[in-house]
Write a structure and sequence with these properties.
This is Helix-turn-helix domain-containing protein. Pfam families: HTH_18. This protein has about 525 residues and is an alpha/beta fold. Helix content is about 40%, strand content about 20%. Helix 11 links the parallel strand 11 and strand 12 (about 325). Helix 7 (about 235-240) crosses helix 8 (about 245-255). It starts with a strand and ends with a helix.
């Protein structure tokens, strides 16, 4: 244990080129890049610092701080010089122990806590000496807190045995610190996993890209605050991590299909979110991918766009007495049903305004992960707990089935590519449809390299010619084919391709296109078939 005595706190606001840090034979120095990045030049090497990076310099170390381009940020970099005394010793110690390594970049989280401590130490150093003894005690405590923060982050840096657990740690961090200014670069540095590999691992664990998931976490917390408080929008936006209420309102509408005020009105006086209350909507029309979500929740719409989906899904027996409102919901056919709610997940966004003249409409992103989409639909009908229970049950059942099928480590996952032939056109699937099941975080398969690129660019599917299947090479190929003759003819060209034949029967799998949906009913029915499909 040591007692600390702060000798100097230097705040660097402006760096046009570089700053030489004075050598101190007995003093230790902490350099913190609080509001921007830069370089710390030491004897023989350079440490590249990001915002939030800190370094501990040993007595006698020579160093220069360098920030290219210059900066006029207030409190850009902090330098704290201090003595450390071992218990019972009168001379400063030359070593404060192994918990904070010297000349090592430490990326500190949360950044707000770091900046707050630095500002407290700087403020204490600038105060008068009227209560010198009391103030020195306070400063010692502040420095100890700063060193403990560094130690905790060093401990985190060395606590992971694999990349997956490192990424999972950042997910936990995000869930608890969503108010902070969070970037993918920051999370990647925190995990120690490379930027592109980090994003792939994050999406395989959560089903969303990091910033998409951050937005979802913030919006979910905002929904709670909107219903629990009367705070103005600007305050709610600030409390969940958005910089201003206008950007918050845009993101909220994009996620929820309505403005924050409309959301509050939809929940007030009707008990829509109360699980014990009956749904206020009795005449529902579904357009797009949400039909299966509604049926899985026990909600039977009076109308849906049955032109395509009604002929291709696995649950056709459940579609009796549901009126067809035409491809993507023709306004005239929808109006004739006199609905009190339209749940829309189609891609004809220009029709939303026309449909909104008929009845209230809620837009649901058709490319959203099944788990998130189902919960959003359930929120409308007071069935959130039912949806969450299904999500947890499906996660557990998926994990169990994949464990039964494969027992090798996750870093030995095989690459797979999914092709779908629909109406005579061959598509490569990104993270859509059956991919949610085959690329499950616990599964034996991960997307092939070119499919990862599609997913990274948020492309759900991509049309190709049969000659191009070699471009999407993988350990396993899956082909899903619909019932039309053109599709069967195209599928034959795929299965006759030399690359397809070269893989052998154990590595190619042909399925009906009806499995290429990601609603809960299809996913539930597909799970028990996986052993037969794959083996």
């Amino acid at each position: 244990m040591h007692i600390y005595d702060i000798l100097e706190v230097k705040i660097i606001d402006l760096l046009s080129n570089k700053l030489v840090i004075p050598t101190d034979r007995t003093g230790h120095r902490i350099i913190c890049f609080a509001r921007m990045g830069g370089n710390l030049r030491l004897a023989g090497h350079i440490l590249y610092a990001d915002q939030g990076s800190c370094m501990l310099l040993a007595p006698g170390d020579k160093a220069e701080i360098e920030i290219s381009g210059g900066s006029d940020l207030l409190g850009a970099v902090y330098m704290i010089r201090f003595h450390a005394y071992a218990m019972g010793e009168k001379e400063p110690s030359m070593d404060i122990g192994p918990c904070v390594p010297y000349e090592t970049k430490i990326d500190v989280m949360p950044l707000s806590r770091l900046v707050d401590l630095l500002e407290q130490v700087a403020q204490g150093a600038s105060d008068g000496s009227r209560h010198e003894y009391v103030e020195r005690c306070k400063q010692q405590i502040r420095l100890q807190e700063l060193l403990v923060l560094l130690m905790e982050n060093v401990q985190t840096m060395h606590s992971f045995t694999d990349d997956t657990s490192a990424v999972q740690h950042t997910i936990n961090y995000l869930n608890h610190n969503y108010r902070e200014e969070i970037t993918v670069e920051l999370l990647s540095r925190m995990s120690g996993v490379g930027r592109w590999k980090y994003s792939d691992l994050f999406q395989s664990l959560i089903g969303k890209k990091p910033l998409e998931y951050l937005t979802e976490v913030r919006i979910n917390r905002a929904k709670e605050l909107l219903l629990q408080t009367d705070d103005p929008l600007r305050e709610i936006a600030r409390r969940v991590g958005f910089k201003d209420e206008y950007y918050f309102s845009r993101k909220f509408r994009h996620e929820m299909g309505m403005t924050p005020k409309q959301y509050v009105r939809s929940k007030s006086n009707k008990g829509v979110t109360n699980e014990r209350s009956a749904s206020p909507f009795t005449r529902v029309v579904a357009v797009g991918a949400v039909l299966g979500d509604l049926l899985a929740l026990g909600i039977r719409p009076i109308g849906a766009d049955m032109t395509v989906i009604g002929k291709k899904v696995v649950y056709r027996e459940e579609l009796n007495n549901i009126a067809d409102v035409g491809l993507l919901g023709e306004p005239g056919k929808v109006k004739a049903l006199n609905p009190d709610l339209i749940v829309y997940s189609g891609f004809r966004l220009d029709w939303i305004d026309k449909l909104s003249d008929i009845s209230p409409i809620v837009a649901i992103d058709r490319f959203e992960h099944t788990y998130d989409r189902l919960i959003k639909v359930a929120d409308l009908f007071g069935r959130t707990n039912q949806a969450r229970n299904w999500v947890e049950s499906h996660k557990m059942r998926s994990t169990e089935i994949w464990k039964q099928l494969f027992s090798y480590p996750m870093d030995k996952r095989k690459q797979a590519t999914i092709f779908v032939v629909n109406d005579g056109v061959i598509y490569v699937m990104g993270m859509r449809g059956v991919a949610f099941t085959l690329y499950h975080p616990s599964s034996a398969f991960e997307p092939s390299d070119k499919v990862k690129d599609l997913i990274a660019r948020n492309i759900p599917f991509f049309a190709i010619e049969h000659e191009m299947i070699k471009d999407y090479e993988a350990d396993h190929l899956f082909l899903l084919v619909d019932e039309c003759k053109r599709s069967k003819h195209k599928a034959q060209k795929v299965t006759n391709h030399p690359y397809w034949k070269s893989l052998g029967q154990d590595h190619v799998h042909v399925l009906e296109a009806k499995w290429n949906f990601d609603d809960p009913i299809t996913m539930d029915r597909l799970l028990p078939l996986l052993p037969r499909i794959i083996k």
